[in-house]
Amino acid sequence: MTAQREQPPRAIRLGVRNLSSIPGVHLESGPFLIPEEDVWALRLRLSIAKESDFVPSETRWILLIDPSYPAGRIRLYPCIEGGITHTFPHQDRNVPAAGTHSSWRLGKPCLDSPSQRLGRIAGGPEPIGDAERRLWWHVARCISWLEAAVEHQLMVPGEPFEVPQYSTEPVDGSLRIVHDEGPDTWRAWSERVGDWGEVRLGILAEDGKTIIVEEFIDARGNRIRQCRRGLTASEKPWVGYWWLWPAPVVLLPWRYPDTWGDLRRIGKRLGVDVDRFIYWLARRCAGEKPVVLLLGYPIPRRWHEDPVEVHWQAILAPEVPGKIEPMKGFRANARGIRERLRRDIFSGSRRLAYLRTENWHPDRLQARGRIHEQLRGQRIAVIGVGALGSCVAELLVRGGVEDVLLIDRDVLEAGNLVRHTLTVGEIGRNKAEAVAERLRAASPMADVRGHPGPLPIGTKLQELLEPFQVVLDCTGDDLVLQSLAEAWWPVPRLFLSTSTGFAAHRLFIFVVNACTFPWEDFREQVRPWLDAEKRRWTEAGETLEGAGCWSPLFPARNDDIWLAAVTALKFIESAVARGVEPGLHVFEQLDGPATGFRPLERGGQP
Known about the structure:
By secondary structure, this protein is of the alpha/beta class. The protein has three domains: about 10-150, Ubiquitin Conjugating Enzyme; about 175-365; about 365-600, NAD(P)-binding Rossmann-like Domain (Rossmann fold), CATH 3.40.50. About 25% of the residues lie in helices and about 20% in strands. The protein is built from 13 helices and 22 strands. Strands 6, 7, 8, 9, 10, 11, 12, 13 and 14 form a nine-stranded mixed beta sheet that branches. An eight-stranded mixed beta sheet has the order 17-16-15-18-19-20-21-22. A hairpin with a 6-residue loop joins strand 11 (about 290-300) and strand 12. Helix 1 (about 10-20) packs parallel to helix 2, helix 4 crosses helix 5 and helix 8 (about 385-400) packs across helix 13 (about 560-575). It is globular, with a radius of gyration of 31 Å.
């Protein structure tokens, strides 16, 4: 709904009136409406006691206020005339706005929540909902931000490091370049600052729009490191290039370069010979297109600390002809070619063509929630990816387990959809392969494979499961467990067998760390519980799928299966990370409005 009133709402008038109490604030206008933005605006002049090469003592700003004030957004932008022109940390890229907003720049300082790491600037939380204080809080915080910028205090030790925004919009927003750098890969790069080389690039098969960095090669052809992803991203990778700088590739105070001329100016400040690299690159990529170049530099976790990883930003290099003609006025020699590259193909005015670049290291992909690191590091084989198995496998992979084998001979049927993670599009497909494909799409850096046949026996079973430290049975099938009991591995592994009782009201988990599965112990401990489950099934009556179907179905709601899967995951996590008592563990659903499973006393009877 667009604000139509000529006068601003009373709450905005109240907030504006209080701004005059802030030292250094001068109102240059009253609130006025910008209809195309549906916001109220106010022009301000802010004064501070000091100045620097990048911040004058007096600057002009425009304050944008949502009509729903004291709710809604509040934004402060520097004006084109009299505003700050540089970009600082904790600020959006400070370039002129376009079109009807051409009177201000886009360099909005990061003042509002959730940027609580800047709480030291005009401290305290944002007073959302307080008409008298909220505008005051933003403007006072902007003055403190300017004072910190003058004193070079926007990059304080101990606060999280941040990289600048892109210099421009990506040249192709539908594509992304993906790498997986983190603290665990820094060792491969710590001695290579200032070097360059090749990267092997491929299309991630799951979406067709993600270009994944598969392998880094140095200029002498030696492999530096591979992407952690276990599966090859493409059958025919193509070549790109990397270039590792010694420090952030930024124009001071904190802006990405726009042009190759900007890059040369940064190189001069950091002691990097940009034209030397361009000459090497041109000889390598002449006649190729497109050419992806990764510009990288070491970054710390917090400002002014030691670097812990490499930050990469991808660009498209200018097209270099197969035969480089010397620059006009120069001889056909190396100097003539260098001048052609410097003055023409990579001229100072040529803009850098940025590509969307993302880091898919597990620390980032799983930052919103992950399981215990000891479980994440296990190689896990899941036997049976039906209702329970598909849910447990999904929880494992989304939680950060990177190496999973799924084993199931069955295909998905329409009746499975009520409590399975797959959908109608996978009907008729093998469950193991279809679930593996789904989980690779959910966790693209994980190595999830499907084994579509029956569980092998004998030496073939031993070979199949040899690489896995955890073997998880989700079939509840005696034949599967007997096969595991007939095989033997020289190194013990964690065996778990999970199954649900009638209507998934009980969950059974048998666990043991051994060289083979102890079938006889399992059968002895589970027999009385199975007898009780059979009685419950008989009392409830059989569930048939339809006319002509004489095989009774196992009844269980989807939500109950998920509850069981979550309980199983937490049990597996405890078993791997802390250890649990071997043998059978039985869990029972809570009655009433409470949800979840409670463990029954060990050694008890049904």
